[in-house]
Amino acid sequence: MTAKALLLAGSVNAALCVLLGAFGAHALKARLTAELSDIWGTAVQYHFYHALGLLLIGVLALHWPASGLLRTSGGVMLAGMIIFSGSLYLLTLTGIRWLGAITPLGGSLLIAAWVLLCVAILRS
């Protein structure tokens, strides 16, 4: 991913976090159990942290444009966000519990993305 693509993905995802957080707090408030509301909150929280992470990686990619590892970190982080938060959003909206089994895969990708970022920084 290019620096511009990382910055765009980070900013679009940050906007989605605000939208989905408001949707959960207002439109879903009366429809969700306390447990499902907590799950939605976790999805938004991790989504937002990693949207900021994408912005950070995008800024670093402007400074180190030759770092393929840095760009890989961003791609892995984006995939992790989609799988982690996406599975929790879907679980909350549909009640399909097996979606929770997918969530740790997304979490593993998020961890890998941060580790890749560390390695990219050390190599730069």
Automatic annotation (TrEMBL):
<feature type="transmembrane region" description="Helical">
    <location>
        <begin position="76"/>
        <end position="96"/>
    </location>
</feature>
<dbReference type="Pfam" id="PF04241">
    <property type="entry name" value="DUF423"/>
</dbReference>
<dbReference type="GO" id="GO:0005886">
    <property type="term" value="C:plasma membrane"/>
</dbReference>
<feature type="transmembrane region" description="Helical">
    <location>
        <begin position="46"/>
        <end position="64"/>
    </location>
</feature>
<dbReference type="InterPro" id="IPR006696">
    <property type="entry name" value="DUF423"/>
</dbReference>
<protein>
    <submittedName>
        <fullName>Uncharacterized membrane protein YgdD (TMEM256/DUF423 family)</fullName>
    </submittedName>
</protein>
<keyword id="KW-1133">Transmembrane helix</keyword>
<keyword id="KW-0812">Transmembrane</keyword>
<comment type="similarity">
    <text>Belongs to the UPF0382 family.</text>
</comment>
<feature type="transmembrane region" description="Helical">
    <location>
        <begin position="102"/>
        <end position="122"/>
    </location>
</feature>
<keyword id="KW-0472">Membrane</keyword>
